[in-house]
């Protein structure tokens, strides 16, 4: 066991006025399995890069272990997977690698194929197995689930549960619950560590939030009472002071003394009031704003929107799925499930009218309006104002959606290509929520999306009950949202 110590860490990017981290202090045991959570753009990947020594910062980070980042770029993807392993760890033991691959339910034969021919899931598993062969290493695992189907997530989660010594960035709640024994959370004003998994952390957070909200309400009432009282006392002391100069034979010395006493008491009350306001400002510091989203889906004159009968889809003459059939009715929330490569995204693209080679019957009423969220966000670039104009959106509504999804107003001045992957995905979701449509078609909408925003989106779909067909590997999301499941 050894320790990673972070002392007075302060960091901001060049040209930025706001610090990402400010005087942060905490300690990590290198035997811990840490889940790292926080809203998109709050600095999770930045912190991992600070541990790797990529940026200059104020403060101190000390450790006796080496940090290894996942995922990393394989420079030559044409070589065999075994050569990739040997380039990473020249002195590894072959039998140990095979043991790790067996834990991950990956066949030994992938080692003798070009790395580029491996599926994303196979690449993820191979590189994880390789990194855990390194001695005296602490792994920084950054969102490994984005290319894994539900089965793959279960396998990798069980694998990580048997390991120790890593920080895992993930927004998949079930995945975190099965993988970690501590939570490292970036809050609005701090970084904190708690023992337990995501569910225990979230329950504790709700208790703390509820306490702060209750205390805040009490303070607001107390501040209101103090303001009224201070105003009355100040008025009273001024009246007494003014009475010194009226007619009659009053004892002006006595009245002046009484007025001064009242003024002093008024000042004391005012100080208490300011202290109370300051105390209030310290409350709610880590409550994440999570305002309700809204959607106004169009009504349709028919109960059935889409019918698929005996659909088989082909790429380069090879079928990826066969004999698929189901209907989408008004109010359905359809989850398309299956392994990677089983044709889920292809069916969504087919529904959206893309040119896909298929057999079978697809019936879509020509009046059905569809709003599509794709997996890909790489094409997003330029200024948000241009994106709004190009997509003919209501600017106020779109910006309101993004603010509710934790966009700061300063982000509206940045170019989209500089946003995090999660922020780009939020742009597509906000666009979809602004569009007037009969059917939502969402392809892995939660990739890179933070946990709090996932819950907002869940609550939206459960409250407004739009008609939607989606592909998503977050098991908790699927279980809560889907009213119909189609297994490919």
Automatic annotation (TrEMBL):
Gene3D superfamilies: P-loop containing nucleotide triphosphate hydrolases. It comes from the Bacteria. InterPro entries: AAA+_ATPase, ABC_transporter-like_ATP-bd, ABC_transporter-like_CS, ABCF_ATPase, P-loop_NTPase. Transmembrane segments: none annotated. Keywords: ATP-binding, Nucleotide-binding. The keyword Ligase does not apply. Residues 4-213, 306-488 form the ABC transporter domain. One of its GO terms (molecular function) is ATP hydrolysis activity. The keyword ATP-binding applies. This is Putative ABC transporter ATP-binding protein YbiT. It comes from Anaerotignum neopropionicum.
């Amino acid at each position: 066991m050894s320790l990673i110590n972070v002392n007075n860490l302060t960091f901001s990017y060049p040209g930025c006025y706001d610090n990402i981290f400010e005087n942060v202090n905490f300690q990590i045991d290198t035997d811990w399995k840490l889940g790292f959570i926080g809203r998109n753009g709050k600095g999770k990947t930045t912190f991992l890069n600070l541990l790797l020594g990529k940026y200059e910062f104020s403060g101190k980070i000390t450790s006796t272990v080496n940090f290894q980042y996942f995922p990393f770029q394989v420079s030559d993807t044409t070589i065999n997977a075994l050569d990739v392993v040997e380039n990473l760890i020249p002195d590894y033991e072959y039998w140990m690698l095979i043991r790790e691959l067996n834990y991950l339910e990956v066949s030994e034969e992938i080692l003798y194929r070009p790395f580029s021919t491996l599926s994303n899931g196979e690449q993820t598993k191979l590189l994880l197995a390789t990194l855990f062969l390194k001695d005296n290493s602490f792994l920084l695992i950054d969102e490994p689930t984005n290319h894994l189907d539900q089965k793959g997530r279960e396998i990798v989660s069980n694998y990580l549960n048997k390991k120790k010594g890593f920080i895992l960035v993930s927004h998949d709640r079930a995945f975190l619950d099965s993988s970690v024994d501590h939570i490292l959370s970036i809050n609005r004003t701090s970084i904190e560590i708690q023992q337990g998994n995501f569910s225990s952390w979230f329950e504790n957070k709700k208790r703390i939030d509820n306490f702060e909200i209750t205390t805040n309400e009490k303070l607001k009432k107390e501040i209101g009472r103090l303001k009224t009282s201070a105003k009355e006392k100040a008025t009273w002391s001024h009246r007494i002071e003014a009475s010194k100069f009226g007619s009659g034979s009053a004892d002006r010395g006595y009245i002046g003394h009484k007025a001064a006493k009242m003024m002093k008491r008024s000042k004391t009350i005012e100080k208490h009031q300011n202290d109370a306001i300051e105390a209030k400002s310290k409350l709610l510091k880590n409550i994440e704003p999570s305002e309700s989203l809204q959607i106004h889906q169009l009504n349709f004159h028919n109960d059935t929107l889409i019918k698929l009968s005996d659909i088989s889809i082909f790429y380069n003459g090879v079928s990826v799925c066969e004999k698929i059939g189901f209907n989408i009715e008004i109010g359905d929330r359809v989850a398309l499930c299956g392994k990677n490569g089983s044709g889920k995204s292809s069916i969504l693209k087919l529904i959206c009218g893309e040119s896909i080679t298929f057999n079978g019957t697809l019936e879509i009423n020509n009046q059905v309006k569809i709003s599509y969220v794709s997996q890909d966000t790489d094409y997003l670039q330029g200024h948000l104002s241009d994106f709004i104009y190009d997509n003919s959106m209501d600017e106020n509504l779109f910006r309101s959606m993004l603010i509710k999804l934790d966009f700061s107003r300063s982000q509206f001045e940045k170019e989209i290509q500089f946003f995090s992957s999660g922020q780009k995905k939020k742009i597509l979701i906000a666009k979809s929520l602004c569009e007037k449509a009969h059917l939502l078609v969402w392809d892995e909408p939660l990739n890179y999306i933070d946990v709090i925003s996932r819950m907002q989106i869940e609550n939206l779909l459960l409250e407004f009950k739009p008609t939607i067909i989606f592909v998503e590997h977050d098991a908790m999301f699927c279980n809560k949202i889907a009213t119909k499941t189609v297994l490919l």
